[in-house]
Amino acid sequence: MIYLASTSPRRKALLKKAGVTFRILKPAYEESKDLKGPPSRIDQVHAVKKAESSREQVKAGTHHAADTIFYLQGEVIGK
């Protein structure tokens, strides 16, 4: 069983399309818009915090978390 620490409709659709058995976990982590640094670091922090905040919900299986941002000309412009 794969546990996905994300409520992203796109990630859910991709896993369904791939025929993967999975369960959605709603992370308790609220993303901060005040994080500074390279886009890859911001994504990494959000993904790790999502995973940490939903870890207790996973008894056995693979636990995945991810984050995506849009970055343009030195600025985060969206999700």
Mean pLDDT, all residues = 88
Q: Which value, in Å, is the CA radius of gyration?
A: 13 Å
SSE string, helix = H, strand = E? EHEHEEE
Structural class: alpha/beta
Q: Measure the end-to-end span.
A: 27 Å
Count the beta strands.
Answer: 5
* Strand ordering within the main sheet: 2-1-3
Reported for the largest beta sheet, the result is:
3 strands, parallel
Query: Which parts are unreliable, with pLDDT below 50 for 5 consecutive residues or more?
Result: none
What does the overall shape look like? globular
Q: Tell me the number of helical segments per DSSP (H or I, 4 or more residues long).
A: 2
Describe the structure.
The protein has 79 residues and is of the alpha/beta class. It has two helices and five strands. It has helices at residues 9-17, 39-54, and strands at residues 2-5, 22-25, 62-65, 70-72, 75-78. Strands 2-1-3 form a three-stranded parallel β-sheet. Strands 4-5 form a two-stranded antiparallel ribbon. A hairpin with a 2-residue loop joins strand 4 and strand 5 (75-78). The longest helix has 16 residues, at 39-54. The radius of gyration is 13 Å and the shape is globular. The mean pLDDT is 88.
